[in-house]
Amino acid sequence: MLFSRKTEMIRPDEALPGRDTPMPVSGTHVVLGTPTVGPWPDGTEVIHLAMGCFWGAERIMWQLPGVYTTAVGYMGGWTPNPTYEETCTARTGHTESVLVVFDPAVLSVDTIMQAFWENHDPTTANRQGNDIGTQYRSAVFTNTPEQLAAVQTSRERYQRALAAGGYGTITTQICDVSEAGDGVWYYAEDYHQGYLHKNPGGYCNHGFCQVGYTPTA
Q: How many distinct structural domains can be found in the chain?
């Protein structure tokens, strides 16, 4: 029976069993021409972002100067190597997310967060427009204490801007990757990778939302 309460997070013991085999992906970014599977070049960092449908979110991120590569997948849940169909049931606990590998000498976390805050609504829990469910929740999963501190500071600044404009409270999940479900990021199916480059007219509900954010650097 399909899980009907899609906006309520499941418990780990309720998660679908999943599988041991990772999703096969091509390994090369369709736009950037860079590898989409690590190891990553020395000096780069990784951050994982969830802001609704991962098709549009990935396109926003691969366009930022200083981004080495991106890929779409699932994070924050408990089902190993979930399929898209399983994730859509809300019984994996994952949110659609984007892996962003970037050069911190060129692109700051705060600038990444500007693109994050301004292109979705972080005040709607488990929802982006007509996309409803825990798979669409807003989230940032960090990989270093410095990233986490920068994201938390960014959240505080953007919340002040939202409040000044009369908007609501940020519901974005912010934590280290080790605290996000089973702590593992799983690649989505290959047809999802670079989807809006392969399908320029494909669905995308991202765009400027509410108020602007000025990065510190």
A: 1
